[in-house]
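Extended Data, panel c. Modelled sequence:
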Amino acid sequence: MPPIVVLVIIGLIAGLTGGMLGVGGSIVMIPAMTELLGPDQHLYQAAAMIVNLFVVIPAVVHHRRAKAIDPSTIRRLIPFAMVGVVVGVAISETPLFVGEGERYLRGMFGLFLLAVGAIDLYRLARDKVRFGVRLPPPYGSDPTNCARPTMGWRFAAAVALPTGLVAGLLGVGGGVLAVPLQRRFLGIPIRNAIANSATLIIATALVGATLKNIALIRGHDYGYRSFALAGALIPAAVLGSMIGSRLTHLLPVKAIKTAFFILLVVAAGRLILGAVRGG
């Protein structure tokens, strides 16, 4: 297939996944472009960060209409996430991950996805229901919620700093980490965690895309190729995101979790294999 057709298909699948699971779509875009167009991690990360922003905006609009977003939670998460993404981009541009070291960045991406997938599988298999103190709406109506009634800055940092760091270092929106961390530290139900995550990605994607593309133009011989890639991906990704965000509130929670796990494991396996082979 012509490269433009490949990019449109990748964009559609990434947008669908991003809208449904509260992630930016990079966990689909970067492995797919690596597999179909050849390895070029820094270029793909820079393009994916741009696309992430466009993927999550329609998703956030739909989540807001569904009243699934908690503004007070978002306000506490954003400052820490922005600090994390700045540090993450800076680390990704160190000599360790440039040139031949790019494969280490790909391998790290794959290991990260595999770890998140393993944790998600464990939670899916355990499938225990816990009870505790309820939050005000939108979380208070969930009978499985066990979160504290207020979120302190320590818990906000525990969620947002790693989210921002991974977003900047690996070129992801950060939702792949923000969703499980919200559930682990804040006890937030998965649909609300997905909605909050999508909102948080607006901040991480905007800052991350700006810094990464400046670094790409100044420190690498790519010119503006990342913008051309993003332009081919964005229209289909936005369409997929609009569809996926609706599916979040229609599909069973277990189906969403299963899809998330399968996606992570497949993407992780391909990236790790490519990094080990050095291609």
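Residues 3-277 form one domain. This feature is highlighted in the accompanying rendering.
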